[in-house]
Amino acid sequence: MLKNDNIMAVLPAKDIARAKGFYADVLGLDPPQVMDDENVLYRSGNGTAFLLYETDNAGSAKNTQMGWETTDIDGEVADLRSRGVVFEDYDFPGLKTEGGIASTPVGKAAWFTDTEGNILNLFQRL
Questions:
Q1: What is the pLDDT of residue 18?
Q2: Are 18 and 116 contacting, i.e. CB atoms less than 8 angstroms apart?
Q3: pLDDT single digits (tens) 27-40
Q4: Which one of 53, 58, 83, 92 is CB 3.0 to 4.6 Å from 14, fit for a cystine?
Q5: What region holds the VOC domain (predicted)?
Q6: What's the start-to-end Cα distance of the chain, in Å?
Q7: Whole-number mean pLDDT of the chain?
């Protein structure tokens, strides 16, 4: 049954080599498991993972595609900024970032894009 299976995010990349560089050099992730020339699997905390696959469709989504839950969003944002990550600024009804971080009724959140145009997120619960 699905309720007992791990969930794995799937992200597109137009240029898998460029994307692998971003996830290694900028985000500091461990080297991925190479599935084949167009598919790599990254592992993260608590058995979570995401598949990065090559496709021309990368960067077309306008929504958050994947996120990490953190206990120190301010520290994570500062660290990623020092590595060259640019955080998005939003000013929508009910959502406004200040210094790249939004405060919501359930926690704090920040968004950035990878080299492939995927919108990624950091989130800290209250």
A1: 96
A2: yes
A3: 999 999 999 999 99
A4: 58
A5: 3-125
A6: 31
A7: 95
The pLDDT tens digits for 62-83 are 999 999 999 999 999 999 999 9
Residue with token string 């993260």: 44
What tokens does 24 get? 């290694």
The Cα angle at residue 19 between residues 25 and 68, in degrees rounded to 5 = 75
Q: What percentage of the chain exceeds 70 in pLDDT? A: 100
What pLDDT, on the 0 to 100 scale, is given for residue 5? Answer: 84
β-partners of residue 94 are none
Q: Domain 2-125 class?
A: alpha beta
Structure tokens at 30: 């461990």
Encoded tokens for 14: 């137009």
Task: Give the 3-state secondary structure of residue 92.
Answer: strand
Q: How far apart are CA 16 and CA 42, in angstroms?
A: 13
